Every structure is written in C-alpha cells, then in structure tokens.
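=== Structural record ===
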Amino acid sequence: MTGQTLTVILRTKSDSGTKIDLVTKLDGFGDVLARNEGSTKDGCGIGCTQLFDDSRRPKMKKLFRQKPTCAAATLALAVLVNVMGAVLNAQEITHYVRYTDGVTTSYGILDGETVRELDGDLFANPQPTGRTHKLSDVELMLPVDPMKTTHVVGVAGNTSWRADSGRPRPTVLHPRWFTKFPTSLQRWDGPIEIYPESENLDWEGELVLVIGKKGRHISVEDAPDYIFGVTVGNDVSENTWYGEGMRVVEGSSRPRPDTNMPTRMLSKASDTWAVIGKSIVTGANYTDLRVTIKQNDVLVGDGRTSNMINSPARLVAYLSRYFTLLPGDLIYTGTVPSTDANPGRMAAGDVVEIEIEDVGVIRNEVVEVTAPFPLEPLND
C-alpha cells in the first residue's frame, strides 16, 4: 500500500439536526477518488471512503457502514483509525544495499552505520542471516549487479507539467524513450566523464524505478506490484549529440545526421552516464517526493515526482506492452524542471548533487576523458 493516502469521513447529525463531518487523513495511501456516504433516519450517518492507489485500483470499499448511535459510531471510527494508523506506521522505509566484505558479495539492509546481512538474491525474497557488519568495514557497490541488469531505459519530457499550473495533466499515449547500457551505470560518488567533443553535457536528476519481478502486458492497476523500489538517478545527457545535428547535406533533399558528431545512442549510453544511488528504497511514497539538483552548491533544479505526466505505474505498463521486464531493470522517469540559475551545461570540475527526499543523495564530479580519439580523417 506504499504511496497512498487514506481519508476516513464520519458524517453525523447533532441532536438539533446539524450535519457534522469528521475527517481523518492518513498518509501512506493513494488518492481517495470516491466516497460511499450512508445516512440513517435515526439521526446518525457514517460516510465511508472507497480507497484507490495511484493506479486507480479499488483497495477497500465500505470501510465502515452501520446504524449505531452517534457516540458509538465515533468510538468505533476512532478504533478503526488507530488500527489503520498502526498498519501504516509499520510500513517503514528500508534501504537495501549490495556490498562486499572483501571475500563475498551480499545484499543487506542499511540501518544507520550498520549493514544487516541478507541471504539470497534481492529479488527472490532474501532472508536475514542474523549477521551484521559495520558500514566502515564493508564496501558498498552498485545496488544492482550490472552483469545481471538487462534493461536500463528512460523517458524524456515526462515532467513538463506542474500540478499547480492550473492546466489539466496532458495525455501522452506514446512517451519518448531512450536506452542506456548496464555499462553506463555509475556509483553515487563516482566521476562523470566529459569528452573533448562534448558541446552540451547536462544533468537530469530524477527518480529511478527498480523492477522486482518478470512481467509482460502488465496492467496499470497491477504495475505497482512490479516495482520493487526506487533510487536516485542522474540521466547524464549530451544534448547536442541527442539531436544528431540534422542538416541537409549536398546531394540530398532531406536532413541527414551530421556525422561530424557522435550519434544519439552515445548521447545517453556512454560509460558513467547512468548514475544511481547507493541503495534501493522501499516504503517511500514515490508518487510525491521532492527532487532537488545542485550544481556547484547552487540550486539548479527543483520539482516533485507528482508532476509526472505519466506516473510510474503507467510507465511500467507501457513498456511491458512491448518487451518483457525483468528483475533488476531500471527505469529513469524524467528530470525535474530547472531553475533560473541553471547554466544549461556541465563542465570539467563541476560537482552535481541530486537529492530525493526519503530516498537519498548522489554527488558526482565531472572529469575529462583524456584518451585520444581513435580515428583519423581519411585521406582522399
């Protein structure tokens, strides 16, 4: 039930006939989209919510409906709220990590400065071993194994809408997708490489979904069950290469890619250009989290995951129509808007920090690639 909000409404009448609504909201549940309201002829009515998650699937109906006295109804509702509150509070945020102790590589749960060891694969219900390690005694690794990660994909232009804009959320039936490679993955504290031929290397700070189980033709309603957790991501992008410098060349009547610059594939998939956080987080309300981006300690990007045009559930459902999603797959969900302070590009020596509340922080320095270009112009 992660990422949802529960609203419980008790509708009563006083002895004088005045209607009274008592409203209780519990964070941790999704949107309340409908309400079942009951009333009685003997002066007391109870309004009950119909609960949905962010994929619009009914979770509960008629949480409470009966015809007691108003005092009894209030007491019963208080008990219900306390019970539901206890359930929600039990949904703690958990940080799963992958680490090595110098001998073996394992998954574990990061708890402050302690790592609690798990036995088995992260996506196959690993069990606690009872052993713990000091964080200082182990080396954290990428939280997914690149050798076992099949798909690393991302969506473009998914956060160009704001919930407070006064405009309805636009409909994008076919989002624009791109791919990265498992070899593109970079640590939360590792360097981001910039090439001499790069003209406009830019950060893209965003939420990354981590798929937990195999699925094809997944419905929007079922998609949240396939999202194991989330992490922080920087979809490093070379914007000039992405456009491929389309121009009309001699002997052609239509635009062709400019072969004097790298191709679109490399604009997203180069090594170190898929940064992710040190942990995979479960229990966070990933449908509404603040994302901030700083470049050299200046706020250059700021937004919320609730401003996505297509929600995480919709993105997962869409992709699964066309190819099978597998455990460990990563989906970059789109960068948040930039501020007026954004310089529009990164340069060697810049430090970019991306933080998502309840999820984590990544901080990476941009460094030059010094390896020589391997090709020379052909001699005529």
About this structure: The longest strand covers residues 4-13.
